[in-house]
Design brief:
Order of helices and strands: HEHEHHEHEHEHHEEHHHEEHEEH
Distance between the termini: 57 Å
Shape: globular
CATH architecture of the largest domain: 3-Layer(aba) Sandwich
CATH topology of the largest domain: Aspartate Aminotransferase, domain 2
Helix content: 40-55%
CATH class of the largest domain: Alpha Beta
Strand order of the largest sheet: 1-7-6-5-4-2-3
Radius of gyration: 21 Å
Number of helices: 13
């Protein structure tokens, strides 16, 4: 089902997006290769350095511009044939990007064309792939046609309790299946986990626009409050990036007493992700309790 939806020949269930990304890299590369990766990508930043351990390849890092690796820098990063250099074998993209932005289809096409000219593969970390398709108002195949492999999460916006899917051609998936077994991901009980994934693919991907609308509503409401500012340039999907004069730790403690749990704050920013279990009424309750917190602290 996942293969058909993404326009690929075959697909494979994996336990997490990290496993899907790392298994894809392992399948595409050989030991000693170099791969081109975004400096702020999930693969580079949040996957425990697994690429070095599992695939034994190195990174050529490129700083993203709104989630995109500049094409000229990709071209410059491709190694020429020289005995001193590793072989470049793979370009990794992320769409939607973890920074909350969506990469245009024209950009995906340009990267794929460049990769083909240089005999490289393209892997897409599509943890929020269907959010990207929703934001672009396109069939997901319009994105995945420009990559050789893609991983997407059944959890996150698609609301399954666990699991991710990786898709590619039959040869790629056959090789990856053995790699999955090597990593301990070949589970006899996978049907129990796959069942909610079917609901994700059949139903939940069609309701993501609601999360995007809720994110915009929350962003506008918070931005109207003097204590908050919103980065609207990163509001392409279901994530709101909030900066505030408030102490997030104190706010979190206060809200926890009201049975509202928040987290994910780094420095000055709080990232709020909207999903199937968050209703508009929940958002209004959050806003009211934040106002109560501000009022109580003002009177303290």
């Amino acid at each position: 089902m996942a293969a058909q939806i993404t326009g690929k020949e075959a697909a494979l269930f994996v336990t997490s997006g990290t496993m899907g990304n790392q298994l894809s890299i392992m399948t595409h590369t050989k030991r000693g290769d170099e791969i081109i990766v975004g400096a702020h990508s999930h693969i580079k930043t949040y996957e425990v350095g697994a690429t070095a351990v599992l695939s034994q390849v190195s990174f050529q890092l490129i700083a993203e511009d709104r989630g995109m690796l500049p094409l000229d820098q990709i071209q410059e990063s491709i190694r020429t044939q020289d005995v001193h250099y590793p072989d470049t074998s793979l370009i990794c993209l992320e769409n939607a990007h973890g920074s909350g932005v969506v990469l245009p289809i024209s950009y995906m096409k340009d990267v794929y064309t460049l990769a083909q000219k240089n005999n490289l593969k393209v892997h897409l970390d599509g943890a929020r792939l269907f959010n990207a398709a929703t934001a672009l108002d396109v069939d997901v195949k319009q994105i995945t046609r420009y990559v050789d492999s893609v991983t997407f999460c059944l959890s996150k916006g698609l609301a399954a309790p666990v699991g991710s899917i990786m898709c590619g051609d039959k040869t790629f998936i056959e090789k990856a299946r053995k790699g999955r077994k090597l990593l301990g991901g070949g589970m006899r009980q996978v049907g129990v986990l796959g069942a909610p994934g079917i609901i994700s693919l059949k139903e939940m991907r069609h309701r993501l626009h609601i999360d995007h609308e809720h994110a915009l509503f929350l962003a506008k409401t918070l931005d109207d409050m003097p204590e908050f500012s919103i980065d609207f340039k990163r509001l392409d999907i279901n994530m709101v990036f909030v900066k505030s004069t408030l102490d997030f730790h104190k706010l979190a403690t206060y809200l926890n007493q009201k049975n509202i749990i928040i987290g994910g704050y780094k420095g000055d920013y709080l990232r709020i992700a909207l999903h199937n279990d968050i209703t508009k009424q929940d958002i209004k309750l959050l806003i009211q309790e934040i106002k109560n917190f501000i009022k109580e602290n003002a009177n303290a």
